[in-house]
Design brief:
Elements (H helix, E strand, L loop, with lengths): L31 E2 L13 H9 L11 H11 L6 E4 L1 H13 L5 E6 L4 H9 L2 E6 L8 H6 L5 E7 L11 H10 L5 E5 L14 H6 L4 E6 L12 E4 L2 H10 L7 H11 L2 H24 L11 E5 L4 H10 L2 E2 L1 E3 L3 E5 L3 H17 L1
Parallel strand pairs: 1-10, 3-4, 3-5, 5-6, 6-7
Antiparallel strand pairs: 2-8, 7-8, 9-12, 11-12
Helix pairs in contact: 1-9, 2-9, 3-4, 3-8, 10-12
Length: 359
Amino acid sequence: MSETSPKLRAELEGIPTYKPGRPAAVDGPTAYKLSSNENPYPPLPGVLESVTAAATSFNRYPDMACAGLMNELSERFGVPLSHLATGTGSVGVAQQLLQVTSGPGDEVIYAWRSFEAYPIITRISGATPVQVPLTPGDVHDLDAMADAITDRTRLIFVCNPNNPTGTVVRRAELERFLDRVPGDVLVVLDEAYREFIRDTEVPDGVELYRERPNVCVLRTFSKAYGLAGLRVGFAIAHEPVAAALRKTAVPFGVSQLAQEAAIASLRAEDELLGRVGSLVCERTRVVEGLQAQGWTVPETQANFVWLRLGERTADFAAACEEHGVVVRPFPGEGVRVTVGESEANDILLKVAEVFSKAG
């Protein structure tokens, strides 16, 4: 037998593996998972029924064109069908965006810390990541990001609200930034948490895209809509970009169950808005509770909060787990905590109070 092994791409060397939020323990004290920004509510009305009906035919391939879902999205957002593309969650579409824009020798700009997948998918494409530090307030430094643009820049991610800090960029600063970006550089507004925004100064990326051919908007059904386990996201972009995304999509990547669930979720928007409103109220309660304890909490417009703990990060995460909640630690930096069930949020606040006094 040959001792040699197949040659793999050199770009894969050193690429970190994406780390999902840890699940709650099945046989231990941990009862609540606050580590993955999931929606704690069950499926919206009509969703489970739609998925159950679709399950009777999963011996067949799904509709590769996602025609039913595409029509719903076109009507919901007032965009042409040719400006839409679907994929396996917004992160799947983001990886396709790297495929269609960037390769060896190209550069991709994003804030840091931001979504953990950005450096991974950038390096997989062979492009060079350009990480621009957040401001001291944990917000995108758009001026520094614009200064980082070179003739090698092909794509820029703007995560709004930003994961994991929850902070946002507002209309005036975002439009000023977009005015500085060359027209041949694609700006991707990653709006996975758009539904949780209550700041009226934060623009809807779909409105910005309409007048800017180099703007692409990413959305997902994983967060507010509660379909994280079915993996369906979409992009809204002008036709050349959207067409390239459809061309590079994994054939039959979005299952029929996911398509039907997404359609039913869009049709249950009133119920969705009520649930999101409840989570936003809980978010306010958690933030105010932490601030009352003396914590510095960045203003969050997402369904999570960010605590910058530095070297105490691991200790805080361990204390949370000991008392029944799993949070998402970023070693040496801080923890991201999803706003979950009120009982889980109560535990978090109790742990945070004890930890704060002890520290």
